[in-house]
Amino acid sequence: MTDATQNTGAVAPQGSLHTLDARTKRRNAAEGRFKLYGMIAIGIGLLMLVTLLYTILSKGTGAFTQTFVSMEVELLESKLDKSGERDLEKIKKVTTFGYAPLIKSAFEKTVEANGIETDLKSKDMTKILSKSAASQLRNYVIANPDKIGQTIEFRFLANSRVDGYMKGRVTRDSIANDKNITPAQLDLVDQLIEVGALKKTFNIDFIIGADASDQRPEAAGIGVAMVGSFFMMLVVLVLALPIGVAASIYLEEFAPKNWITDIIEVNISNLAAVPSIVFGILGLAVFINYMHLPQSAPLVGGLVLTLMTLPTIIISTRAALKAVPPSIRDAALGVGASKMQAVFHHVLPLAAPGILTGTIIGLAQALGETAPLLLIGMIGFIASNMPETVGEGLLSPNSAMPAQIYEWAKRADPAFYERAWGGIIILLIFLISMNTLAVLLRRRFERRW
Amino acid sequence: MSVKLTASALAIAAVAATSAAARDQVQVAGSSTVLPYASIVAEAFGENFDFPTPVVESGGSSAGLKRFCEGVGENTIDVANASRKIKDKEIKACAEAGVTDIIEVRIGYDGIVFASDINGNGFEYTPSDWFLALSNEILVDGQMVANPNKTWADVNANFPAQALQAFIPGTKHGTREVFEDNVILAGCEATGAFDVLLAAAEGDTDKAKHKAAEKACISLRTDGVSVDIDGDYTETLARIESNKDGIGVFGLAFYENNTDKLQVATMSGIVPSTESIATGEYPVSRPLYFYVKKAHIGVIPGLKEYAEFFIADEIAGEDGPLAEYGLVSDPELADTQNAVADEAVLGSNM
């Protein structure tokens, strides 16, 4: 602006164009500064990204390894099946508490056999093990009742404190006031490492397992929540894609342009910007309180996320349809195709890559959503088993990946915090691969005119 | 067991016949203090019984009881966890929504501790210190004045000159009420502020005056010294890690899991521990409860079994996993067990 006002009515600039006058220098400097600002902005962005990735990876990779103690356990018939009939109903009556003595004696034997000397009582020794050991043993016995009376080698999880010691999170200094572990127990851990009975290995159960209670963070896994997320995405895909595409085709190709369609259009754009928690409240009111669908079910979660994803899919589908040049439609109509034939045989296939990309991005967004799940009971302690059928997967209570991460992050034991970061890594892997797929599809199939 | 199984199988069939979407797992919500205990029980319940693992949600005692009182039916929760007793107001709200028969179960006691950053100053509090630190008005020379204290040294000459900053549970948490009653109100009375407030209180009856004075006592300052935490204890911990001067209010079990980051303050000279809480020496403790909808027993499979399992000796007893995690077991557990076995509802035995 200033340049323009200076020029009006003034004499033409003096001197050669090859020598820079003060004003040109100023303009060049301004451009240089602007470029610098841009580079700084990008630099800050990259720095943030690197910090974020570094934090996530450094804090989360620990969750993928876990400390195990291996030992031989004698499955005493006198404790597990007094009648000796191998009647499953009777074996089931022995609760996990009844299995604790077996583990105690097995631990004593392991220590003895390896020539380890310790002053600890057997009760304090078993505290090195996870509380999940008894249930692991019970599940094994119920699955294999014929093994009662034999001695079997088991690999038990170690307690989260011991695991933290192996990972450097717990040190002898930090446990000064900790009543959950003593230095004497850490001495025993050191000796068990030496004889090879205690090892840190890759832990597949983190990826495929279920959530665990506050007392056994070492046993918690994200697998069941992953399945919950999968079923929700299935519902979203099955509902949102056809509804969204049909709605956009009608709005874009068939609907008359009048004030009603204008209002619908404005509403769809607004819906895309509605905070997701609102859809959660809606889901609670409509799906659970009115339609009486079960709480905490991935079906309800999927329905809520469908509502959230629909506007995204409709908007991207309409954009993809708009990008198909009118000449294609005109040519189809010109050779005698009906309007519907023109749309379904010519326009839709050409718009498909754009629609798919939009759908995948919408799904990725829905996958990372936590807030609406809060209200329909999908955030909490939900340690269900892996669903066996599709119906069970849709209706039995389950969590979702982001909900599980949130749940872990607020629990007391620091070991859960590590798992929360580990969960973030898995969620990120999913998101990145979905987004990559979207980019690849677009690259591969997109046509430009 | 098999009788129980057939009974519950019949119940499932009956429910399935009436509604297409029958629920077969117990649904629990409420106090985040009770959540760890409830999840430990839920896990053990799922392992040892043929019922599915109950779903336990958190959100605070008041939020849980509110959902509990929404009505009877499969789309409402069966059990509400609470870190305080249910209020008359809530019983009334429940009754209006058709939830009349409520079984109250006390599972044990929990201590509330004051903890600060492990590398900071240690404190030995009395309730008066907390009243003088956080109350909106305190007594100075016989007059109630706006709280002028800025550092702990202003509160008590024995304390270091560390800026006052407290992270206390928000009002939707049951812990807040215990904090107000056992710490702030006790401090209010100990410093003599209560008597002055009572004398100045307006009201028709003594009871109304008393109530007004209590309300004035527990109104906390709003200048940023006292911060309400509506989330969980992890949020309080994060606040203390970023502000080393902060003192937080935690549950005993949470502190015991984070002894490498937090140091605990004594209250009236007593170090909080399960032992000192069990004997009643440590003053800031409260009972933990859960509430069961009687109308859901027999409809939701496993509900009664879950309630009974929760307070069984092997779970809530002195050597059980709950005590190991930090719960102070209830000396009158046997009475509670009988009450649950008989399905005794609130109001019937009072």
Topology:
The complex is a heterodimer of chains A (449) and B (350).
Chain A: H1 2-7, H2 22-60, E1 65-74, H3 77-80, H4 88-92, H5 96-113, H6 122-125, H7 132-143, E2 151-157, H8 160-166, H9 183-195, E3 198-202, H10 204-208, H11 223-254, H12 259-271, H13 276-290, H14 298-323, H15 326-334, H16 339-367, H17 371-375, H18 390-395, H19 401-409, H20 414-445
Antiparallel strand pairs in A: 1-2, 1-3
Helix pairs in contact in A: 2-20, 5-7, 11-14, 11-16, 13-14, 14-16, 15-16, 16-20, 19-20
Chain B: H1 2-18, E1 27-30, H2 35-48, E2 55-56, H3 61-68, E3 79-82, H4 88-96, E4 102-117, E5 124-125, H5 127-134, E6 137-140, E7 143-146, H6 152-155, E8 166-169, H7 174-190, H8 193-200, H9 206-217, E9 226-229, H10 233-242, E10 247-251, H11 252-257, E11 262-264, E12 266-267, H12 274-278, E13 285-293, H13 303-310, H14 313-316, H15 321-325, E14 328-329, H16 333-342
Parallel strand pairs in B: 1-2, 1-3, 5-12, 8-9, 8-10
Antiparallel strand pairs in B: 3-13, 4-10, 4-11, 4-13, 4-14, 6-7
Helix pairs in contact in B: 5-7, 8-9
Describe the structure in your own words.
- The complex is a heterodimer of chains A (about 450) and B (about 350).
- Chain A has about 450 residues and is mainly alpha-helical.
- Chain A has two domains: about 65-200, no CATH class; about 225-445, MetI-like fold (Orthogonal Bundle), CATH 1.10.3720.10.
- Helices cover about 65% and strands about 5% of the residues of chain A.
- Chain A has helices at about 1-5, 20-60, 75-80, 90, 95-115, 120-125, 130-145, 160-165, 185-195, 205-210, 225-255, 260-270, 275-290, 300-325, 325-335, 340-365, 370-375, 390-395, 400-410, 415-445, and strands spanning about 65-75, 150-155, 200.
- In chain A, helix 5 packs across helix 7, helix 16 (about 340-365) packs antiparallel against helix 20 (about 415-445) and helix 19 packs antiparallel against helix 20.
- Chain A is extended, with a radius of gyration of 31 Å.
- Chain A starts with a helix and ends with a helix.
- In chain B, the strands form three sheets. In chain B, strands 1, 2, 3, 4, 8, 9, 10, 11, 13 and 14 form a ten-stranded mixed β-sheet that branches.
- The two termini of chain B are about 35 Å apart.
- Chain B has two domains: about 1-110 and about 285-340, 3-Layer(aba) Sandwich (D-Maltodextrin-Binding Protein, domain 2); about 110-285, 3-Layer(aba) Sandwich (D-Maltodextrin-Binding Protein, domain 2).
- In chain B, helix 2 (about 35-50) links the parallel strand 1 (about 25-30) and strand 2.
- With about 350 residues, chain B is an alpha/beta fold.
- Chains A and B meet through helix 7 of A and helix 2, strand 2, helix 10, helix 11 and helix 15 of B.
